[in-house]
């Protein structure tokens, strides 16, 4: 069980550290709301990954190109919407810092949606972590449990560390925070365009002349 736990932890760390739409979103939220109101977003994969794993294992033995393109488009559109909301707040110079606990719940929900419609988890589970999980299950069910515990322990822990790191930037003053929020908005826009290109641009290039 321990070797599979260590293997799962390695996969979880890589999955959390890999740049993508989900990471851009949680960094943006940490800069705007602070780490205390955003750290709950680190739990989003625990909510959204269950249907992804079931879909990949029991419906999709491999992620088909058509589904992958659709996920790219959905991820790009949702990320563009989040970037527009962040830009509206940034332009009016009013940081989005709600005082109610609902803000944390909304952040967690948006993070779960972002992770659910991003192509990364589907590709990651079907091509990278999935085969190792199947191998651990065939070895022994407890080995699969160890793999998942190691994976999500490292994934959630690394995401929480990223959120805390960027969330504490608020302590250095509003100018730095505003500049970092602006940078995260640009990053989200670039990632949104890239996701849309992967979903639409490549499809157009594949069409016969």
Summarize the structure in words:
The N and C termini lie far apart (54 Å). This protein has 9 helices and no strands. Helix content is 82%, strand content 0%. The radius of gyration is 18 Å and the shape is globular. It has 209 residues and is mainly alpha-helical. Residues 95-102 have low confidence and may be disordered. It has one domain (2-206). It has helices at 2-17, 21-33, 35-38, 44-58, 65-91, 102-117, 119-139, 141-167, 174-206.
Notable traits:
single chain, 209 residues, mainly alpha, 82% helix
Overview in brief:
This protein is an all-alpha fold and 209 residues long. It is 82% helix and 0% strand.
Strand-pairing-aware structural class:
mainly alpha
Instruction: Give the N-terminus to C-terminus distance in angstroms.
Output: 54 Å
Uncertain runs: 95-102
State the helix count.
Answer: 9
